[in-house]
UniProtKB/TrEMBL annotation, chains A, B:
Species of provenance: Dactylosporangium roseum
Annotated ranges, domain HTH tetR-type: 16-76
Gene3D superfamilies: Homeodomain-like (1.10.10.60), Tetracycline Repressor, domain 2 (1.10.357.10)
InterPro entries: Homeodomain-like_sf (IPR009057), HTH-type_TetR-like_transc_reg (IPR050109), HTH_TetR (IPR001647), KstR2_TetR_C (IPR041490), Tet_transcr_reg_TetR-rel_C_sf (IPR036271)
PANTHER family (UniProt xref): HTH-TYPE TRANSCRIPTIONAL REGULATOR RUTR, HTH-TYPE TRANSCRIPTIONAL REPRESSOR KSTR2
Protein name as it appears in the record: TetR/AcrR family transcriptional regulator
Entry annotated with the keyword Transcription regulation: yes
SUPFAM superfamilies referenced in this protein's UniProt entry, alphabetically: Homeodomain-like (SSF46689), Tetracyclin repressor-like, C-terminal domain (SSF48498)
UniProt superkingdom: Bacteria
DNA-binding region in chain numbering: 39-58
Keywords, in A-Z order: DNA-binding, Repressor, Transcription, Transcription regulation
Pfam families given in the database record: TetR_C_24, TetR_N
DNA sequence: GTCTATATGCAGATAGAC
DNA sequence: GTCTATCTGCATATAGAC
């Protein structure tokens, strides 16, 4: 539509990139201060334009939030679907679910934080009622894996699987608030450690056969 | 100061109760929609007065948030202190820390949710910079218990204790978003189940001593 | 695609009557 | 202790020039 039709310097940013630049600024601000507390002026300042100019690219502030969260949820859904398609051992699938979650969070850190912090607020806005569905799908994915594990006898059956799901998923997703992946401690290691904690527990295995600790 | 000096009908609410009523309404709204997105008019509506009248009781909206969070944090600090004073087995103390957390969350559900959701936003306001300290104290309490357990050989030493702390504490505190205690499933049971999951893991112990992995 | 200028509404907060 | 009335500022969003 309004995209330029001539080819610019190939080293310059492509057309359409401007939208992404704005969304990046907006997402960072939304994540840090909350959606309601972030003004379109702050977003414009961060980009380096005036607030009125934002409306050339987006219909409203809500529209920006919408795009940010939608792409996050699309990615999340894709990865969870792939994990569920694998019919492997429940322990492996649980680990894969943890890893997939951390990968999505790493790819969309701001969106993940917005989802964590502002979900209640957003659900009060009609436009975002679809978020309720997204939450249900996430829960279904985890419960499928947990319940399969219990059925196979691999997982304990004495705990309510919904409670187990909540405790594990929230712990993993909230890592976006404090975890910064590094060479020394990449997300794969966090996924391994978290899964190991959830599956085997914090208790030392000294007393057992040999000593694994 | 401004409290009435005569004794009213003993069945009526005591003087000073009006403040509490307002704080309750405010806390519920702050928790549900977020502090920034809640207006003083909504609070007044909920109480059944006009927004201007709120300022007879409180200096500002921030002052309300301040009182709500302060009493929550005071209670939290008290209970954590008591748990740390007990020099019992690390497993027991970890359970007690979980239980203390759930008790505070149960006693101040709205405040706990505000703290969870709006901490980033509030930390951007000078008045609330003291919240940073509160967070450090919580972390110290958990790390003390975890590290003591590792030192005693009761807990595994192969996981970073800060990571373990984050995963467990966030899972427990976030339960305020979904857990509603009932006769059938009171907080004591959640504390037990969560502690059991963290300490012993989700893996079934069907096979004997041999392969637990 | 950005700017200037501005419409419109609602936010937090205040002063003084009752 | 609440209400009436209102101040002040800033929010989102728009219209049209450049």
């Amino acid at each position: 539509m309004s995209r330029s039709t001539v080819c610019e310097d190939p080293l310059a940013r492509e057309p359409g990139d401007r939208r992404e630049t704005i969304l990046d600024s907006a997402a960072a601000l939304f994540a840090r201060k909350g959606v309601a507390a972030t003004t379109v002026r702050q977003i414009a300042d961060d980009v380096g334009i005036l607030s009125g100019s934002l409306y050339h690219h987006f219909d409203s502030k809500e529209a920006m939030v919408d795009e940010i969260l939608s792409s996050f949820l699309r990615d999340l859904n894709d990865r969870y679907t792939k994990v569920l398609a694998q019919k492997t051992d429940a322990r492996v699938r649980l680990h894969d679910l943890v890893m997939a979650s951390l990968e999505v969070v790493e790819a969309h850190p701001h969106a993940a934080e917005i989802y964590q912090n502002d979900l209640n607020y957003l659900l009060g806005i009609e436009r975002f009622s679809y978020l309720r569905n997204a939450g249900r799908q996430v829960q279904d994915a985890w419960l499928t894996v947990i319940d399969a594990g219990v059925a196979e006898g691999v997982f304990r059956g004495d705990l309510d699987s919904k409670i187990v799901y909540r405790l594990m998923r929230e712990a993993i997703w909230l890592s976006v608030r404090w975890f910064k992946p590094s060479r020394a401690y990449p997300i794969a290691k966090l996924a391994g450690d978290a899964t190991s904690l959830f599956l085997d527990g914090l208790t030392a295995e000294t007393a057992g056969p040999p000593d694994r600790a």
